[in-house]
Amino acid sequence: MKRREFIIKNGLAIAGLSFLSSKIIGVNMLTDSKYISNRPPINQRTFTSTVIDNKISEVKNSMVDKELAWMFENCFPNTLDTTVDYEIIDGKHDTFIITGDIDAMWLRDSTAQVWPYMPFINEDDKLKNLIKGLINRQIKCVIKDPYANAFYKDLKKESHWKGDKPTPIPGVHERKWEIDSLCYVIRLSNEYYKLTEDSSIFDEEWKRAMEIIVNTFITEQRKDGSSPYYFVRQTTSMIDAPTFSGTGRPISPVGLICSMLRPSDDATMYPFLIPSNIFAVISLRQLADIYTKILHNETAADRCLSLAIEVNSAIKKYAVFNHMGFGDILAYEVDGFGNKVTMDDANVPSLMSLPYIGASESEYPISNTRNFLLSDNNPYYLKGKAATGQASPHTGKEKIWPMGIILRAMTSNNDDEIVECMKMLKQTHADTGFMHEAFHKDDPYDYNRSWFAWANTLFGELIVKIYNERPELLSTHIN
Q: Are 104 and 151 in contact (CB under 8 A)?
């Protein structure tokens, strides 16, 4: 079973989400004139923020399309409403954020889930402390196991994946090595400091975790041909674990960083996953800036910058190639021998999401790559009766990801394209008012995951972005 599905299959998702009850299990709750909020009652929410609630009211009141406004009201606060465990531990803020229908915290998902709230943290001390607590919790996780992607707060909790090899240590949900997991830790710390100038997060534990991150990146360049990492899972799915006894396909050590799994938690085909390597370059530059300007550690800064330069040079040499229909584009995965995969996966980081994570056209052929991704040449760009959009091998060959549609809109400069994306999102939520992991291209009622907080909050971020930058797009019905 895939990690995105096992809790629902065990019947636990609904038990942990009673306030949504039949509203999100495919029952048509819509009427012609009234949309009832699917948010839990205030006393059942896991976290409340007045500034976020005020923003919801402000944006919602500006939206002419009532169904889209209802979806926004449900989705934008979903992380705060349903997934937060915040407390003070040993005198420090501590925030544990589950992914939704799985009661574990992913380093990637947890950062992405709170990212849309970051612009508001200077207006709400509670929200600021929540983010600070998540940084502290992520640091603990990195120190515990830098190769793990998902964690438990309860050290006594037995992992669902206890049969994996090596066996997850206490506090680890699963141990899938994905470059982006560690990049998201840097991304959150960097953004928090940029917004607040609160340098107290850069304590000795944080410094230790950052050293571990950089060391892990260097180790996974595998310049001597070896790595301490392997991952084996007893499964019927070929994409759940790397080939060759969990070590992955051969690579030529050209300076890129190996990622045995994708942000979807699927095994890579070729270990040099390009969107994640670009993310690593961006993150290493951010870390170098922190070392230089705040911690005044030029040695550590130079180490980060040298690694970023090396990885970036390898990206441009081995991942950029000329496609006969689109010009120079980026491959999704390469192996350093000249072999490559041309596709994309709807998760983040992806090739589509590169501008969202901070990559620029001046460094990479993003526009050409985008044109390729939105064409029939991309095997995971699906066209169906319900919608067109990016898919993921994680959910098979016939399901589109709302997240892919959202990121397409987030990274677009074309009003018509953005409106078309909003239209597809509106038409495929299956009357639930929430985003899902994926839906069948011909039938939005055939969907995965009724409680996927990242996708929900990301949809809210899209609407806020449109409200701030293109408010006229919300002043009409989306049909």
A: yes
Q: Which is it for the CA torsion 114, 117, 121, 123, positive or negative?
A: negative
Strand duo 172-174 + 272-273: pairing: unpaired
Other CB atoms within 10 A of residue 23 CB: 18
Question: Taking Cα atoms as reference points, which of 276, 303, 307, 353 lies closest to residue 115?
Answer: 353
Closest CA to 230 of 242, 240, 215, 212: 242
Helices (H), 100-242: 107-114, 125-144, 179-196, 204-219
Work out whether the CA dihedral 125, 128, 132, 133 comes out positive or negative: positive
Is this structure's pTM higher than 0.85? yes
Angle between helix 179-196 and helix 107-114 axes, rounded to 10 deg: 30
Residues in the chain with pLDDT values less than 50? 1-32
**Cα–Cα distance between 147 and 166 in angstroms, integer?**
11
**Three-class SS state of 399:** strand
Query: Would you call 453 helix, strand, or coil by DSSP?
Result: helix
CA distance 331 to 336: 12
Question: For the chain, how big is the Rg over CA atoms in Å?
Answer: 21
* Structural domains of the chain sorted by starting position, each given as residue range(s) with its CATH number in brackets: 6-474 (1.50.10.10)
Q: Which helix or strand (DSSP H or E) is residue 151 part of?
A: strand 150-151
pLDDT tens track for 295-305? 999 999 999 99
